[in-house]
Model the fold of this input.
Amino acid sequence: MKLPYFNFTYPKELVAEKPSKQRDECRLMVLHRDNHTIEHRLFKDLIEYVDEGDVVVANNTKVFPALLYGEKEKTGANITVFLQRELNHDMRLWDVIVDPARKIRIGNKLYFGPNESLVAEVIDNTTSRGRTVRFLFDGTHEEFIKHIRSLGHTPIPDELRALRNIENFDADRYQTIYAKHEGAVAAPIAGLHFSRELLKRFEINDVKWLEITVHCGMGNFRTIDVEDLSKHRMDAEEIHVSQEVCDTILQAKAEEHKVCIVGTDVMRAIESAVTIQGKISAYEGWTNKFIYPPYNFSIGDMLITNFHHPKSAQYIMACAFGGTDFVSYAYDLAIREKYKFSTYGDAMLIL
Done:
């Protein structure tokens, strides 16, 4: 299939600027693949679609405060630096996105924090907005990371920052309640809807909760710019899938229980851990797997996702899982019913 097939338009006022008051009380559109019917529920009703022995697999990555505001040397011009990935522990080398990029050149020094307490030097260009920088900091790596955390801001997407300022609630709500392992610069947004009450109901009903780690990167927001989807290359993300998780999933499948995948990031990681024999095995490393129709999913029976942008990797994966025509129809319905889109938007459950 070609990229234009996954294009659609929707009113920009449907982009959710803020999360719902209660995590699990956003709207939930439920898509039944077997008979192509659709239900309109609340996210907390998810408990009605999983049974005793089913497993729910979520991403326990923790979002790093990766957004730094600073000034350029000499001119004092305001600049924004979005930390992407640490390239070298000892040399303090980082892959970053800078804005405005046209003013940031190799050799420039960038200053951050009160009294310019942190300095970075630009040492390479990587993309039109990408740079490699070296932070100049006296102290241990632990002290350096602690200082970054003290200066950094919650990295909500550019789309939201164009609509409003970062607010105090973002530090909590742009993070899942089960976040554990720091390393993501983008939240696993399908997981933002889970509440402690809902997880407790899973426990009471003997629904198994499993966690893997996918350190989500800015590739989640990168535009696909090739018409032939087979030529698109996803940005690599670090993933950790334990053998214990794999064994629990395999046992559930053997006993004909359902596997519910929370988010396209988790689906991509799980499918990356599938062996040639169609089984899932422990995986530690990186994946740039891009899933698009047609695709034969090996593990997941259910997918929880948000309402995503046209031509996005997330929307395309949802189409691969739910059926392109059915998901496209569901999105048209969501627009008519005024479901909220994007990071803090409503959710979709594909059965």
Observations:
- The chain has two domains: 3-63+176-350, 67-152.
